[in-house]
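Q: Structure tokens for this one, please.
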Amino acid sequence: MTQLMTEPSIMPQAIISAQQLTQKIQLADKELRIFENLNLQIHAGEQVAITGRSGSGKSTLLGILATLDQASSGHLQVCGEAIEQLNEEQRAAVRLKHIGFVFQSFQLLPHLSALENVMLPLRLQAHFNYAEAERKALALLAKVGLERQAAQTPKVLSGGEQQRVAIARALISQPQIIFADEPTGNLDGATAREIEQLLFQLNRELGTTLILVTHDPQLAAQCQRHYELADGQLTEHLQRA
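A: Here is the predicted structure, written as tokens:
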């Protein structure tokens, strides 16, 4: 009797893997635990939303996953790097190579043009080439619909335009992961929907992993996976097909 050989199924590699993450703060007379023993795996290309009430610790969790902060204990692996084993300089190198950020407050430098703001992450890399950086920045500004505003400074751009510049800046290093902290929080309803659709469109086109922190249940519902942080615990919500 001939036995058919089947290839073993290959599980996708987690781009972020967190085990037993705990974050606590020592106050004058007591210890405050923001969250405890969180476990989370995120795979390449996924769209993941993290929600929770104000003060629940979701932005703290985002900062730790993005290597901006360190957890009190637990294991975190980002893009194959064991983050708790790295010093700050090494964590900064991980961010520069693998991670892009979009913030609620845009965080554009006011004295730089849209083009110069988008180019900024490339200036931090070794072997910076101005002509190549400019070409990449102009291409991204075109992709987010702002090629005509390349020479304008943030003060003459609308909130939605500033966030589009911030998205282009986040993408210029071709990161594997985009972290977005309340990316539509400072925008009106119509503009917020435009920015949301742009983020999801670029996620699909470029294959980046998108991790959002948001208060907006409509935005969370559009993601493939939705976690809620409450009472120090992370719970996954089943998304509708």
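A few notes: The longest helix spans residues 189-206. The beta strands are 14-26, 31-43, 47-51, 73-78, 81-82, 99-103, 177-181, 209-213, 225-230, 233-237.
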